[in-house]
Design brief:
35% helix, alpha+beta, 23% strand
Amino acid sequence: MKLSRNDIDFLTRCGLEAALAATQYISSKTNQAHATELKSGTAELASQIVTEIDLESQRLILEQLAESIQKFDLGLLTEESPDDGSRFTKEYFWCIDPLDGTLPFTERRAGYAVSIALIDRKGQPIIGIVVDPFHMETYQAVKGQGFLINGMPLKFHSEQKEDLVCHFDRSFVQSTVYASTIKALESMSHSLGYKDLQIRTGAGAVMNALGLLDVEAGCYFKFPKPYPGGGCIWDFAATSLIYEELGLHVSDIYGKQLALNRKGSPYMNESGIIYATDNELSQQIVDLHRSILDQ
């Protein structure tokens, strides 16, 4: 089954309505205390935390998407449910992160989002939708149709060499290679002509990527790890399409296309990721990773 333009338009509206329904619910719970539980499967605190808000947000999204799943025989991959393998047998599947950045949400600060993507069986995102409940901003991309923020077109451009902004997950600060990575980034930023290096941490993966749309030049990357972690398919599905539609760079740490329907675990720890505002910067990060490995 190949989706028509009308089908994609319909599914985009479905995804947007689902994301907004979840956002409305999340926003109503922002200033409340929430009981948290820890999930197994990863050593990173940010990936372990789950609240009743995550679960209810997912329920609302699935309720909104139920008609589209039945009508188009879609598969499903969501953060808060077991992977049922339908993404390998259906032509397309919804990929859902009902509350990315649960940790900043529980701390009542910016950095969390609702993320929904439609992906084909080959791992190519077709629709990408993100809503930031903290700032009430909506990001929307459809393959080949460009990008909208709050319903308006945006063309990203970076012509001035101001500061280089690097986003990291909070867990990376405790990494054994953090200090050497920062030192290498400082040297790299100066060699590329940037005035200074800014390091920002604390957001979830989705807003770490989208936060770079507000800077002149920036990157967000994650090195490969030998254990589960490093984000999952649902962390990168929507934002990777947004970057593609804006003409920005997104890849794994080796410069190859992200595998967004990989076999086995949905974790991306084996490949790592790179989001960057230009190709020169992304290549420098690929080289930086190689140099870290050689140390």
